[in-house]
Amino acid sequence: MMFEDYKNPDPVKPLPTIVPTPDEYQTAGHNGFTALWVVFVIMTAASAIFAGLSWKIPVSRRLYHVITTLITITAALSYFAMATGDATSFNCTKVKDHHGKLPSTHHQLCRQVYYARYIDWAITTPLLLLDLCLLAGVDGAHTGMAIVADLIMVLTGLFAAFGKDHTAQKWGWYTIGCVAYLFVIWHVAIHGGRLARARSNSVGKLFGSLAAFTLILWTIYPIVWGVADGARKVSVDTEIILYAILDVLAKPVFGLWLLLAHRRIPETNVELGGYWAHGLTSEGQIRIGDDDEGA
């Protein structure tokens, strides 16, 4: 019996094979691209409407119209870039795969990031704040500080979107952006609201409504970022659709509301003359080569 056991030992079991997990790519799909094209059309149409409304206003009073039209034109260009597949990159992070008692492996998880969105925000959100500050009569110092804080908020969001996961880098940038947003609220909503109410009740009500509407939307943006680019809990398509809804409300809807409402409140007009309204005139110009006849 012992001899038979010696001649027929148990066969050696093969070592289990570890199949590495392939790299994952989170990208936009059909629904996402459809949303991008729809918003591009909306922003383009809004730009045409705002430009058309400006023709009924004297040039000296078109500042709100010019700013608001620039906002939607910039957004239209951004959405055209995203819808055609431009202005996008990938942020990849290494994910560890556990295999029980076997050695762990790693794979790359790459998420599509549309940096055109941040370029858009860096241009349009300061213009939105300028609209609100002009409406309230905010001084240049507070307006400038609000715009700087806003740019810090947008740029730190961009840095966070390309930051490394599982480190303090990404969420550190995110935190800095949220702190900058508090300064925007202070300079625009609190200080601006006080000045708007001092101008008149009608100005105070209009500014309060527009500022509350804008800041509520702006508070939702970082929440969407946190579950999308931040924690990657929602798909790229869902991220696109959520931002699309917010952008339409924050730009065309805001702009139309502002342009139609402020026309009924004369004290909100910003009167610009000089070069803005009349260009360069011959009055006061020095002509080289003209001799003084009395000399």
Strand content: 5-15%
Q: Major sheet: size, sense and barrel closure?
A: 3 strands, mixed
* Radius of gyration, CA atoms, in whole angstroms: 28 Å
Approximate shape: elongated
- Overall pLDDT score: 86
Give the terminus-to-terminus CA distance: 137 Å
Task: Encode the helix/strand succession as letters.
Answer: HEHHEEHHHHHH
Question: Which class of secondary structure composition applies to the elements?
Answer: mainly alpha
Low-confidence stretches: none
Description:
This protein is mainly alpha-helical. Helices cover 64% and strands 9% of the residues. The chain contains nine helices and three strands, in the order αβααββαααααα. It has helices at residues 2-7, 30-54, 63-83, 116-136, 140-161, 168-199, 201-230, 236-262, 274-278, and strands spanning 24-26, 88-99, 102-114. A three-stranded mixed sheet has the order 1-3-2. Strand 2 (88-99) and strand 3 (102-114) form a beta hairpin. Helix 7 packs antiparallel against helix 8 (236-262). It is elongated and about 95 Å long. The chain starts with a helix and ends in a 17-residue tail after the last helix. The model has no long low-confidence stretch (mean pLDDT 86).
